[in-house]
Amino acid sequence: MRVRAFGAHRQPASRERTRGFTLIEILIVIALIGMLAAIVIVAINPARQFASARNAQRWSNVNTILNAVYQYAVDNSGTVPTAITTTSTEIWKTGSTGTSTALVDLSPLTQNEKYLTSMPVDPSCPTGCNTTGTGYFIFKSANGRITVNATNTELSSTISATR
Predict the structure, then answer these.
(1) How far, in Å, CA of 118 to CA of 16, rounded?
(2) SS (H, E, C) the chain
(3) Residue-wise pLDDT tens digits, 35-73
(4) Peptide bond into 126 cis (omega under 30)
(5) Cα–Cα distance measured from residue 65 to residue 148, given in angstroms and rounded to the nearest whole number
(6) Consecutive H or E run containing 73
(7) What is the CA radius of gyration of the chain?
(8) Can you give the pLDDT at residue 90?
(9) Is the dihedral of CA 116, 105, 163, 56 positive or negative?
(10) Which of 43, 52, 91, 146 has its CA 20 to 30 A from that of 103?
(11) Which of 62, 110, 114, 104 is nearest to 83 (CA)?
(12) β-bridge partners, 159
């Protein structure tokens, strides 16, 4: 008979089972992730964020048009383009063909790209504007002050600038 030294005998290979996640545990985790995602989406409110971004673009465009009108006036002894009247009228889109008495033609501002390369167009156009319009309206007060406004605003805001 053979004798083994103390501690020299070998243990049989251990057959421990590695335990994974159960189906119910995985489903609970997925449900929790879904609820957290829903809360984050509601908190961020993408529709409101997009509407706010479009309004910011409208503010920028209104100020751009107003600045171009006054740059034109500075270069022309204080005279604004003659097409601007005391009636609030939509501005004609750059590159539009035909004629329209319902729109203000501010092509002197875009001619040779001196003041503007093209007339800014409202982000909701063409659905929210005249086919050949920009969605922005302009008029001159009795005192000669120019007002440009956007009528297709969102989130119940008013976008108008006067100088």
Answers:
(1) 75
(2) CCCCCCCCCCCCCCCCCCCCCCHHHHHHHHHHHHHHHHHHHHHHCHHHHHHHHHHHHHHHHHHHHHHHHHHHHHHCCCCCCCCCCCCCEEEECCCCCCCCCCEECCHHHHHHHCCCCCCCCCCCCCCCCCCCEEEEEEEECCCCCEEEEECCCCCCCCEEEEC
(3) 999 998 888 899 999 999 999 999 999 999 999 999 999
(4) yes
(5) 7
(6) helix 46-75
(7) 34
(8) 94
(9) negative
(10) 52
(11) 104
(12) 150
Q: Say which amino acid occupies 106.
A: L
Q: Encoding tokens for residue 112?
A: 């040779």
Type of residue numbered 125: C
- Work out the number of other CB atoms within 10 angstroms of the CB of residue 33: 10
Q: What pLDDT, on a 0 to 100 scale, did the predictor assign at position 11?
A: 58
| Two structure tokens written together for 124 | 């909701």
Encoding tokens for residue 132?
A: 């050949």
- Contact (Cβ atoms closer than 8 angstroms) between residue 115 and residue 109: yes
User: How is residue 148 written in tokens?
Assistant: 């440009």
